[in-house]
Amino acid sequence: MMKRKTPLSLSFGILCALLIFAGCAQPDAAPEAANGAQADPAHVLIVGGGSSHDFDRWFNEATVATLESAGVRASYTDVPEQVLPALAEADILYLTNNQPLPDSALRAAIFNVAESGKGLMIGHAGAWYNWADWPEYNKTLVGGGTRSHRHYGEFTVTVVDTTHPVMEGVPSTFTLADELYRFEQDPEGTPIKVLATAEEVETGEVYPIVWEVLHPGGRIVVNTLGHDEAAHTHPAYQKILQNSARWVSGQSL
Q: What is the DSSP annotation of 141-180?
């Protein structure tokens, strides 16, 4: 004959069931905590300043807003003396400047960003051959450089590596008004992986627009777009910028 379950044994059964349920649920809680621990935003230090561009408006105000809208923390300086101390707090260095950076300790620190595994981004004016006394910058960190550009106007950018994280969510082609930089790859420089190109319709020449520099130490992305409002308010440019920051920092997109 089956014995009737007493209130005490019933309570004990319920307690055991709750403990078993809690034990089963516990493993699912750990990844959430881990994910929360990984959610700290990457910090981008943007360096601007120099000639021929409104650095404060586009590489400070607009760029900071674009990055922070994607959950990336950003700060800006156009004072070379402020860059070296600020680097200690940054996960990513974003060079957009064409003003001189003559301090040897700062130059060494910029190279150390790539060599130490931190992220490096180089934008627009930063991809120019700016400094005759610092050829190592272009050769090693850019993979070459630019000495001229097409007249300001519209051209079409074509994504040539749709699988790269920097190009995730970017249209396969898009048109904008900007300066089409005539990038010259250094045959003795760090190899590059071209991610997007544009054709100069007057000459038929095709130039890299966005590329990864295959540096053995860390992740580097160069983007020659960004002269003024037409680029900085363009959704494709903004997406490339956001993707670049998160990818060079090592965060998933």
A: IISEEEEEEPPSEEEEEEES-TTSGGGTT--SEEEEEE--
The span from the CA of 223 to the CA of 195, in Å, is 10
pLDDT confidence of residue 39: 56
Half-sphere CA count of 47, side-chain side, radius 13 A: 26
H helix runs in the chain, sequence order: 7-37, 55, 63-68, 80-87, 104-115, 135-136, 229-232, 235-248
The burial class, CB within 10 Å (0-12 / 13-18 / 19+), for 76 is buried
Distance CA 166, CA 16 (A): 51
Contact predicate 125/96, CB 8 Å: yes
* pLDDT, tens digit (0-9, with 9 covering 90-100), for 63-113: 999 999 999 999 999 999 999 999 999 999 999 999 999 999 999 999 999
Q: For residue 37, how far is the Cα from the chain centroid?
A: 21
Q: What is the rounded distance in angstroms from the CA atom of residue 209 to the CA atom of residue 211?
A: 7
How many Cβ atoms are within 10 Å of 206's Cβ, its own excluded? 13
- The Cα–Cα gap between 72 and 59 comes to 15
Please provide residue 95's backbone torsions phi and psi, each rounded to the nearest 5 degrees. -95, 115
Question: Tokens 């990336």 map to which residue?
Answer: 72
List the one residue out of 217, 190, 249 whose CA is nearest residue 111.
217
Looking at residue 53, what DSSP letter applies? Answer: S
- pLDDT tens, 161-219? 999 999 999 999 999 999 999 999 999 999 999 999 999 999 999 999 999 999 999 99
